[in-house]
Structures are given as structure tokens and as C-alpha cells.
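Reopening this ticket.

The earlier resolution said the output was attached, but the attachment link was broken on my side. Pasting everything inline this time so it's all in one place.
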Amino acid sequence: MQGAGRSEKVESPRACSVIWKGKTLTTVHAKGNAARTFPKSPDRRDDAADRALKLVLESLEDSKAEEIVTIDIAGKSALGDYMIVVSGRSSRHVMAIADHLMTDLKDEGYGNARVEGLETGDWVLIDGGDIIVHVFRPEIREFYNIEKMWAAPDMEDGTLH
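Inline output:
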């Protein structure tokens, strides 16, 4: 049924700007600044996002994805609860990892994830709702280095500490 889905409480976002390498970057925070990017806080309860995370990590390991990094973005972004960044050895491997993950998500009842970049296999973005997965070829991952962007220090009053 189209339009049906879970209802979520959404808090008003807050934006922070950072100047990095001469460019202004803006990050929207749903619940303000969080204390840390890595790893997941130990006191979080096991919920739907955590179960989905387990499924995604198992699928990625089964596909022989390399350098798997999990970033807890809950409270930092309205995009989701987790961002996962992985590498594939080649374009073909990147596409196979993405295809296997999408099949696993669908088979486990998570529906059809939104996907970008599957045609080229350089960088595939899979948006599974609570979990966002980036699958890169190694040189593309190194160039964009999105893990470093999400591991940035906390911001207060728009200044970098």
C-alpha cells in the first residue's frame, strides 16, 4: 500500500557550518551535538535499527566487503541511525556487494532500499531508512573520505573545537 509506513517523531533540525579545505560544509543535526561518532554508545537498547544493522553487517561480511566501518549517526543527523562505509575490490565486486545486500534486506522484510550509483559500481549508496550504506571502490573511498567528515569534532556555537 503506497504511503503506508511507520510514523516517526521528528524534532526540528539545527544546522552547523564548518569551513573545511576552503569550502563551507553544512551538517543538519536532528537532536544537537553528540558526544562521539565512533562507536555506538553501550547503553542503547536493542531496537529495529540495531536488528537491521546486524543483518546488514552479516550480509556485507558474507559478500567479502572490505574495511567495514560503522558510524553511529543517531542524534547527529535525521538521515538515519547508522552509516556504514565499506570497500569492494573492483566495480564488479562493489555491484555484487550492493546487489546481495539489497536482496537480503528485501528477503528479511525491510522492503526495497533506495539505491544510487549501481550502474557504474564506483560508489553505490543504499538507503535502507535507519541504515545508510556506502560501498566504494578503494580509490573512490579514499578520495571522498566520508568517514573523516563524520568523525569531525563536536561543534558549539558554530566554532570548531
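Reporter confirms the inline version is readable. The longest strand covers residues 14-20. Confidence is low (pLDDT under 50) at residues 1-21, 23-46.
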